[in-house]
Specification:
Blueprint (H helix, E strand, L loop, with lengths): L6 H7 L16 H14 L4 H9 L5 H7 L9 H8 L2 H13 L1 H11 L3 H12 L8 E2 H10 L4 H16 L8 E2 L12 H7 L15 H14 L9 E5 L15 E2 H6 L3 E2 L14 E5 L9 E3 L1 H9 L3 H14 L16 H13 L13 H14 L9 H6 L1
Antiparallel strand pairs: 1-2, 3-5, 3-7, 4-6, 6-7
């Protein structure tokens, strides 16, 4: 997971804990761990005295571990998640921000090809347009997560990158941010700041916390580096015919847009982007809550969202919100079949794992791997293979 649940998102949704997990650290003695970090920092080219000063002030933060285990918001279904997170007030403020920073957004679109709605949605979800940036000690948070057993492979490099920013005078032990070590208005990790930090307001420094132009330009640069393709869509709401082959849906089934059009898939608002001859664009038909709920075509740019955050429900909501900020209508919610509770989802994942499926962890979260496994079992059982798990499927398994 590239990024964790943003603070503004957790505040809006009211985070519930996930199932209990072993929280014992895997890094051994914390002091010995810091000695290794110091040696790694020196090996990366940081002055030994600076590396020593960097690790000298670090300590574990149990509140960070508690926050890391408290990401049950991702167990919510798409309709619930998006309705709680997207309000008319948040849309209105986003459009006001687009007007206020129009010059910056014009530069971002010209230099990086990222539409303003995409960055506005991240800005809103990550920090509520800069208002909720977090008060965790950034360096302690990174050290805690790098030492912890759950994702050290993600956070150890970020801690060393933070040492580089420390050596440059960009951050210090008083720097604060999100519990997972992200900094600033669009919540960037240290390695991303080193690679993509930009001086958007021209004052000669990169201030991701206090300068919206700096934060937005940096976010645009990062999205381009992650593979954003200019002048292409990311998500388009569609209508689908009743007789569609549901097994052809899902993020693992790309097809040319023209093929989707030939199968009766139509844009709800206007023509399907990339549906003309010679465009070469492919898309996946995304049914977040099955064949009776909202339907979207997800284009290649949609994949970039998963580089920002690997939660399926967060990514889909952020991509949809970006289209709303760009003028798209409210989705057609439809009448989805009832889904599963968190406990039922865990039971389903256990059954899928027992059948040999890799669901990416039994966590009660309907991620893309779980959806793919559900679709396979739906096909096997002769059920509509729309990747939406229901009590009927759980009973059949």
């Amino acid at each position: 997971m590239r990024r964790a649940a943003p603070l503004a998102l957790l505040a809006a949704l009211g985070a519930a804990p996930l199932a209990a997990q072993d929280s014992a650290p895997c890094g051994g003695d914390f002091g010995t761990f810091l000695q290794g970090v110091e040696a790694e920092a020196v090996a990366s080219g940081i002055d030994p005295a600076t590396a020593s000063a960097f690790v000298a002030g670090l300590g574990p933060d149990p509140e960070v571990i508690a926050a890391d285990r408290r990401q049950g918001v991702f167990q919510l279904d798409f309709l619930t998640f998006s309705r709680r997170l997207i309000s008319q007030d948040r849309i209105d403020r986003g459009r006001a921000m687009a007007d206020r920073h129009a010059t910056t957004f014009d530069r971002i679109e010209a230099e990086y090809g990222v539409p303003r709605g995409v960055l506005l949605a991240f800005w809103a979800f990550e920090t509520d347009y800069g208002a909720v940036q977090g008060d965790f000690g950034t360096l302690d948070a990174l050290a805690t997560l790098a030492h912890d057993c759950r994702r050290p492979e993600l956070f150890r490099p970020q801690l060393v990158a933070a040492a580089e920013l420390f050596a440059m005078g960009e951050i210090d032990h008083a720097t604060t941010g999100a519990w997972a070590g992200e900094i600033g208005q669009v919540q960037m990790l240290p390695a991303d700041i080193l690679e993509n930090g930009r001086d958007g307001d021209g004052d000669g420094r990169i201030d991701l916390k206090g300068s919206a132009p700096d934060a937005l330009m940096s976010g645009g640069a990062m999205l381009q580096a992650l593979g954003w393709r200019a002048d292409e869509p990311w998500l388009v709401e569609v209508t689908v015919p009743d007789g569609l082959d549901w097994a052809s849906t899902g993020l693992n089934h790309p097809r040319p847009v023209a093929n989707w059009a030939a199968a009766g898939v139509a844009a709800r608002d206007g023509a399907l982007p990339g549906g003309g001859p010679g465009t070469g664009l492919e898309a996946r038909l995304l049914l977040p809550q099955g064949r009776n709920g909202p339907a979207f075509l997800a284009y290649p740019n949609f994949d970039v969202y998963f580089e920002w955050n690997q939660s399926f429900v967060y990514v889909t909501t952020a991509a949809y919100f970006a289209t709303r900020l760009m003028g798209a209508p409210i989705y057609l919610a439809g009448d989805p079949d009832p889904g599963l509770s968190g406990e039922q989802m865990i039971a389903l994942q256990e059954k899928l794992v027992a059948r040999g499926h890799d669901v990416g962890g039994v966590d009660g979260i309907l991620g893309e791997r779980t959806r793919e496994a559900v679709q396979v079992e739906q096909q096997r059982l002769g059920l509509p293979a729309d990747a939406w798990p229901t009590p009927a499927l759980l009973g059949a398994l």
